[in-house]
User: What shape does this take?
Amino acid sequence: MRLTNLDMDALRSFVTGIDAGSFAQAADRLGRSTSAISAQLKKLEDQTGTALVRRSGRGLALTDGGEALLSYAHRILKLNDEAVNAVQSPKLEGWIRLGIQEDFGENLLPHVLGRFARAHPKVRIEGRIGRNIELKEKIASGHLDLALAWDDGTAPDAERIASLPLCWLGPAEEDPLWQAGGGEPLPLAVLEAPCLLRTLACNYLDRAGIAWRIAFVSPSLGGLWAATAAGLGIALRTPFGRPSGVQILDAGDYNLPSLPSLGLSLLGLGKPDHQISAHLATIIGQALRDRLPEAWVLEAQQERK
Assistant: This one.
């Protein structure tokens, strides 16, 4: 039996079109004509022997075959890009020390370390999970070369790569113990000070004239999630890494202040010799694009020099 080799360009057009919501937008992103993108989709349907998309109102909907192929296509393209990057990248040698804000440690750090090690096996990489202030201090003192941290606007060499919405969080299994207008101050579950998100929570509640009290303090994010899931207090975080026992609260339903987004930045890229850091930053950006909604991720730098 002769196996079919799927066309990589056609796969990329297919994935881009579905992610963008239309093949016209895919054409803009890929710098090709809409007719060329349509021809690639037709080629892919011929190769797979099945229809992949159908019209649904003004948009596109996947067929059963399209849904199955999309999952594989994401993985095929990811592996293709990783292989090309590994072959074309310079043969880097040396070592680099990376710090990652603890919200991203469990879900992001293993993927980043593994992918970078495969692409640059001669580079020794050391990873560290920490709080924002610790990461900034270690970048400033030279104990870290690159750090992924929340952007508080005070780091001069920060390159913002994403913007995540802040939200109020409570237990998933029941309503929070606190109710607006009940006469009791809002109980907060927070990390030990100094903490950027703890400060933001207090400031936004003060501006809204809402009384609050610190009900639970944790030195770690795991303890904060546990306290929030148990209903001991309401927390302010982003949705990333939120465990199943914690739900996002509708600010309007609880008369809580609306919240903005919080920038996520890479620190340390302003150093004169940062070739290794630049390649690691590219991998971090790709890992975030794989895990965050498209609207949260900012356009990647085309080239870091």
